[in-house]
Amino acid sequence: MPTPSMEDYIEQIYMLIEDKGYARVSDIAENLQVHPSSVTKMVQKLDRDQYLNYEKYRGLILTPKGKKVGKRLVYRHELLEQFLEIIGVDKENIYEDVEGIEHHLSWNSIDRIGDLVQYFDEKPARVDSLREVQQKNEEQNQE
Predict the structure, then answer these.
(1) Kind of pairing, strands 59-62 and 52-55?
(2) 27: number of CA atoms within 13 Å, CB side?
(3) Which annotated residues bind Mn(2+) 1 (predicted)?
(4) Which of 27, 32, 54, 105 has a beta carbon 3.0–4.6 Å from 47's, enabling a disulfide?
(5) Residues 53, 71, 103, 2: is their CA dihedral positive or negative?
(6) Angle at CA 103, nearest 5°, toward 97 and 106?
């Protein structure tokens, strides 16, 4: 099982490969705001743990195991963003909140949040009802 730090790297590598077709150490470092040397160390660890294949100066590719984990991590991130949007979290706070909580939830909790997001997607009137409750509560808190 990857550590939270490993998950961040796998997720970032997966997204870069999906977006650009490749992931370079410099791109990973820039996106994660870390030094390239830190990326190299982590990539070597991910290679040892068989999440990717890395050859110095030649690049890296995700293994089937790495692709599976990467896809699941991106799903988790996007799902949590959807969930926070549904429950009314301000858009400017969503990314930071997701980064803060995504590694602390079990996959069972993620699956249940997925069920809830699906429920609200299928019944948009319930989101409107939720907004009404939130607005009412905000008005009461201002009194």
Answers:
(1) antiparallel
(2) 15
(3) 8, 99, 102-103
(4) 54
(5) negative
(6) 115
pLDDT in tens, 79-89: 999 999 999 99
Indicate whether 35 pLDDT > 80. yes
To the question of whether residue 138 is assigned a binding role by annotation, the answer is no
Q: With contact defined as beta carbons under 8 Å apart, do 127 and 85 qualify?
A: no
Distances (CA, A) of 123 to 77, 115, 126: 22, 12, 6
CATH class as words, domain 4-69: mainly alpha
77 is in an annotated binding site: yes
The annotation status of 128 as a binding-site residue, yes or no, is no
Domain covering 74-141 in this structure, CATH number: 1.10.60.10
User: How far is residue 28's CA from residue 32's CA, in Å, rounded to a whole number?
Assistant: 6
Answer yes or no: pTM beyond 0.70: yes
